[in-house]
Amino acid sequence: MSQQPTSLGRPIMPMPGVPDPERRVVRVRRHARRLFWSAVVLVAVAAAVGYFLGNLPAPFEDWMLVAAAGVLVLLFVLLPYWAWAAHTYTITTRRVIERSGLFAQRQLELTHVRGYTIGMRRGPLQRMWRTGTLTLDDGVEGRLILRDVPDVRLIHEALVDQVEVNQILAHRDAQSMPSAPPLLPNA
Which of 43, 68, 121, 125 has a CA-to-CA distance to 159 between 20 and 30 Å? Predict the structure, then answer.
C-alpha cells in the first residue's frame, strides 16, 4: 500500500484540495527465469574456452576461439540480459507505467483514477514460481498486459488498493469543489 495506514488499517487520506505527490509503490521486471538459457550458454561457452584454449587443431588459433566465444556471449547472454533489464513495470500512487526498449523507448500508461478491470492468469509453471500475467483493461485506451510478474498476488492487491484509493479521492475532491455561481441574465 502506498499511503501510511492508520490504526484502523485504512490509508491516510490527504486533505481535500491538497495535491498528493506521486510516489512509487513498486517497480518490477519480468521474472528472471527468462535468463535461464542465457546462463546455460554462458557456462557452456566458458567451459568450451577453458577446455579448447591451447588445444585447438592446427588450422585454428586461440584468438579465433576467443572471438567466437565473445560473439556468442554478446548475442546469447548480454543482449537478452539488456532486453530483460530494459523492460520494467512501475506502479505509482497515480498510474501504472510499462517501459521497454533498448534503443527506442516505448512507454504505456494507465491511470488509477479512470478505474480498470484486473485479470490474473497463472499457468502451472507460473504458479510454481509465484508469478503470473496481469491484464489491466479500462475499456477505452486499451489493455496493459504485465507479463510474468513476480509475486503476482501482492502486485494484484496493490493495484486494487490504488484504484480504490484514487477513486475515493477523486469522488471526494469532486464533491468538495465549490460550484460556479449561477449566471444572471443581462437586464
Answer: 125
